[in-house]
TrEMBL record:
S-adenosyl-L-methionine binds at residue 399. Residues 240-552 form the SAM-dependent MTase RsmB/NOP-type domain. This is Methyltransferase NSUN7. Keywords: Methyltransferase, RNA-binding, S-adenosyl-L-methionine, Transferase. It comes from the Eukaryota. Transmembrane segments: none annotated. Gene3D superfamilies: Sun protein, domain 3, Vaccinia Virus protein VP39. InterPro entries: MeTrfase_RsmB-F_NOP2_dom (IPR001678), NSUN5_7_fdxn-like (IPR049561), NSUN7 (IPR042620), SAM-dependent_MTases_sf (IPR029063).
């Protein structure tokens, strides 16, 4: 096998890299040479006319536009910076060594190659600024990923064991060795203003003295693994995770207290950005709106440095934050009414608190933040919230579980946002997550191993369950939003279901139940059958688990129109609609219209109901004064006729006399006329109630005259009524006539209709 050692040496790598850059430059020159003749239209012969000044200016302008365009494309496609790495300051190396000492892989006794000392694990260092903090975590995580490779290099180069360096400094040696090979074994540039650290300078001196041997050992390792670079030595899972982290888009939410969305769009257009429809269309200087959160914009990942230098970001008008936190904040907003307060159980990222504050009413709602113990941290947070124009945040020094549910400060709180500490294995960029959410550095070790130890997972789940149960004890709270970045069911579904089964003992509050998160736009595939929202880690987003626990609605409580409009606005249903309060005149008109509607109710519903009530009262008095027997059955034809008669009576006055065929037949056991007269006298003397006045007149005025008048003697002969056997009887309330008072005739009268005087029967209105 013909092996070329120079391809594996560090110096050759640099030549190859710069050779590829020179190749790109040659291609760039060819592109320009092909472009200049076309834009300038310069002839090839020397005798051609010289171009005018306007043509030259036009060519230069076009050339500058092309240069800017190609620079943007080169910045997008390039994965490495052209600037040489010069190393870090001494404090970064020391802090990175302390972090690595906490998270390095401890191997079994029979596999230990290098000893890291027996000193206790140091506490987390105090960082000078955000840059040094980020650099320290990145350097420690890189040393963790390549721990086996770096240990083999130290042993193969005979650097270890070193009599001059103690085992307690081994973590510092490993960290500085990774940075040394990353700089192609070039010397570090040291600033004169930097304060030197003795052990850092000592380790650096010994590493530089072994420069050649270390480079050769690295080359042999690459040949052994047939790897073009050390990145190819990493496990497949780690490489995929790093690819996701590098391609993960940037999510930024709009600070509505400082700028409107329309102004953001205009400013981005001025900066050369183009708005596209979806994340799949992001390419170059483009952005799009997130499909779940209305106030979140999405940018390509390679533009981070440029975006942070834009005025929109330096003035806190746009703020970059992971999408999972924006999903939780939007879910909280959808559950709030106009004047409700919010409890943020964990401080986590100050961006989450600021986002909630921006979406709430600054004058009537408050955002309570638990667990801000340090006064210095509290002062820094207040200054930061002041820069964002957030004026309704309240910092509490107690932890969430230390606060009593009956605390008088939290009686207006209706929603709790619970972002507990979790394993975080669904995060593609662990360093960003640790820095923003103030998580433990142990996440780096778990992410590198690809799993969490069972005992650690059990401790996390127990703490999450404790906090969720404590949140359910706040009687005034109506909803809880629970959100994690974990891929384990033990931290997600099982914690929520266990808390719901546990419930709240005692009290008269409504129980909690699962409710799907209310998001303006939500894919059905992301909502599980148990009403949980899940988003798996991918190249466009980190993992997100979201659960909303809402109290069951109390039927005795009424929701005001103001609250309904607030929730509708939170769901994005009132965009572009201005809601104004109705005037007093409009309210009076509404009341009048309601009264008219009640008066204009269908008569065959309201009248029948009131008549039934009145006749029910009459039945009681009738039973006490007479012993009238009522028939138990009526023929089907008679029922049909009676229903037709009643419908015509309730609609309008009858214009034709009722024929005998429409009357029910006489019952066998009939009362005598004197008893019936007493009943009628009692009926006329009854003082009806106000609501029954109209009802009483209808059966007397409409029903009675068509039946009685054909048999009434104008001369006052009362015996005619008895002679023709005419009387009244009551139909029960349960009958088809709805309890109306109807006349009855004897069988003999019905059979001898032809004996009645023809003049009386033919008269169209005999009662007049």
């Amino acid at each position: 096998m013909d092996v070329k050692p120079e391809r594996c040496s560090p110096s050759t790598d640099g030549c190859d890299r710069f050779g590829s850059e020179r190749g790109a430059q040659r291609q760039w020159d060819c592109d320009l040479s092909a472009f200049v003749p076309s834009i300038g239209k310069m002839p090839s012969s020397k005798s051609s006319s010289v171009p005018s000044n306007n043509d030259i200016k036009s060519d230069v302008s076009n050339l500058s536009e092309l240069t800017v365009s190609n620079e943007r494309e080169f910045a997008e496609n390039s994965t490495t910076s052209l600037t040489e790495k010069t190393g870090y300051c001494d404090s970064v190396y020391r802090n990175a060594a302390n972090i690595f000492q906490r998270i390095h892989n401890e191997k079994p006794q029979d596999r230990i190659l290098i000893s890291y000392g027996n000193e206790p694990v140091p506490a987390l260092p105090i960082f000078r600024d955000e840059y040094s903090q980020r650099a320290s975590y990145e350097l420690a995580f890189s040393a963790l990923k390549y721990q086996d490779l770096l240990e083999n290099i130290l042993i193969d180069s005979c650097f270890y064991p070193c009599q001059s360096i103690s085992d307690e400094l081994t973590s510092l040696v490993v960290v500085m060795l990774y940075d040394f090979q990353d700089r192609k074994f070039q010397a570090r540039q040291i600033s004169d203003e930097e304060e030197p650290i003795a052990e850092v300078r000592e380790v650096e001196h010994y590493l530089y003295s072994f420069k050649t041997k270390l480079a050769a050992a690295l080359a042999r390792c690459r040949i052994k693994h047939d790897a073009l670079s050390i990145e190819h030595i990493l496990p497949e899972t780690i490489r995929k995770q790093e690819q996701r982290a590098s391609a993960l888009p940037l999510y930024a939410w709009i600070n509505a207290l400082k700028i409107s969305p329309e102004e953001v769009y205009r400013n981005l257009t001025k900066e050369g950005f183009t708005r596209v429809d979806s994340i799949s269309d992001l390419e170059g200087y483009t952005y799009c709106l997130d499909k779940h959160c209305q106030d979140v914009l999405v940018f390509p990942s390679f533009l981070k440095e440029e975006l942070l230098n834009l005025e929109l970001f330096t003035d806190y008008k746009l703020l970059i934050q992971d999408k999972s936190r924006s999903l939780a904040v939007r879910s909280v907003k959808a559950l709030l009414n106009m004047d409700d307060d919010v409890i943020v159980a964990h401080m986590g990222s100050w961006l989450t608190v600021a986002h909630i504050s921006v979406l709430t009413n600054q004058s009537t709602s408050k955002v309570f933040v638990c667990g801000v113990k340090s006064q210095a941290k509290g002062a820094a947070l207040k200054d930061m919230f002041r820069c964002l124009d957030c004026k309704n945040t309240v910092l509490l020094h107690e932890d969430f579980t230390e606060i009593e549910p009956t605390d008088h400060r939290l009686q207006k709180a209706k929603v709790i946002l619970l972002l507990p500490r979790c394993s975080g294995l669904g995060v593609s960029n662990p360093i960003e997550f640790i820095l923003s959410e103030h998580e433990d550095a142990g996440l780096l070790k778990d992410l590198f191993q690809g799993s969490v130890a069972e005992d650690k997972l059990g401790v996390l789940a127990e703490q999450q369950f404790k906090e969720l149960v404590h949140a359910t004890h706040f009687n005034k709270v109506q909803a809880i939003v629970y959100c994690t970045c974990s891929i384990y069911k033990e931290e997600n579904e099982e914690v929520v279901n266990k808390a719901l089964e546990y419930g709240v003992e005692g009290g008269k509050v409504q129980p909690y139940r699962l409710s799907p998160p209310v998001l303006p736009v939500c894919c059905n595939s992301e909502i599980s059958s148990d009403s949980f929202f899940k988003m798996e880690p991918s190249e466009i987003s980190n993992c997100c688990f979201l659960a909303v626990l809402a109290r069951e609605k109390d039927p005795s409580e009424s929701v005001s129109v103001k609250d309904i409009l607030a929730r509708a606005a939170a769901k994005g249903l009132l965009e572009g609609i201005e809601i104004e309060k109705p005037s007093k005149k409009e309210e009076k008109k509404k009341k009048k219209s309601k009264a008219v509607q009640q008066r204009n109710m269908p008569k065959d519903i309201s009248a029948q109901t009131k008549i039934a009530e009145f006749l029910g009262q009459e039945m009681v008095s009738l039973k006490s004064n007479s012993e009238i027997s009522v028939s138990k059955a009526i023929s089907n034809s008679e029922k049909k006729n009676l229903s037709q008669t009643n419908n015509s009576v309730q609609g309008k006055k009858m214009t034709k006399p009722v024929l005998n065929s429409s009357l029910p037949r006489m019952l066998k056991n009939a009362p005598n006329p004197s008893t019936m007269n007493k009943v009628l006298e009692k009926r006329t003397n009854i003082k009806p109630r106000a609501e029954d006045k109209m009802v009483v007149l209808k059966p007397v005025e409409i029903v009675l005259p068509p039946v009685m008048v054909p048999y009434f003697n104008p001369q006052g002969n009362k015996s005619r009524i008895a002679a023709h056997h005419y009387y009244y009887h009551w139909i029960g309330i349960n009958s088809s006539t709805h309890g109306l008072l109807v006349p009855s005739v004897s069988k003999r009268l019905m059979k001898s209709k032809e004996t009645l005087p023809s003049a009386v029967i033919k008269h169209p209105r005999p009662w007049l």
